[in-house]
Amino acid sequence: MNPIFAILAGVTVGAAVAAMALRNLVHSVLCLTVSLVGLALLYLRLGAEFAGFVQILVYVGAVAILIMFAVLLTRGGEAPPGRIANAPWSGLAVAAAVFAMIAWAIARSPALRGMAKDPAQPPLSVKAIGDKLTGDLVLPLQVVALLLTAALVGGVVIAMSEKETE
Amino acid sequence: MTPYLIVSALLFSIGFAGVLTRRNAILVLVGVELMLNAANLNFVAFWRHGPNPAALDGVMFVVFAIAVAAAEAAVGLALVIAIHRHCRSGNVDEASGMKG
Description:
The complex is a heterodimer of chains A (166) and B (100).
Chain A: H1 3-21, H2 25-45, H3 49-73, H4 88-108, H5 110-113, H6 126-134, H7 138-159, H8 162-165
Chain B: H1 2-21, H2 25-49, H3 57-87
């Protein structure tokens, strides 16, 4: 296994474990950010530059900050007393069973064995992506624009204080 | 190819464990985000090693999935803030009533 891949994968998975296991919510969100950066670097390693930079812009730049705002608005930064998890052992057992099943499927898959070990770098230009988005995929692009508008309006309406909505 | 799929499966399981066990609603949303990202890693890995990478299908899927995940995060966090204002708690166990 490539050492760079091993480091990136270790950082990504380790930060994800920390994000799910830490008691303090602010620490959790910061670990989630590290994990998202690790994923973006894995995309870059796979040759998907556009996806990697979109990941950094949208996830690291916007979603992580949004979650941090929510943590601070709900005063989640103060570590709560008492348990942080419900039935942790049965939950972990179910998640481990899911992982074991996926790993078994990956190990047994005949389709994966036929794939090239390290194929040539496919051509990926932003121009090709733009052509695709405004050509074949123009309808999905419009639907996503509508979805984002609806999410914006819905988020404002839901988060508005209850007195104003009456 | 296989190492990427294993990393993706690990991320999915970690996010799933968080969704199942954590008591804070924000951490449940963070778990969902991790699961979505695991699926995105699979899309990119299969695009790179698939038979027709010039078609860009995997990258397009990832771009659309990131847009939908951003919308989901915005609405989900607005719901968390509304529940916190109503119940004075970010705990998913205490938001158990459906009426007012």
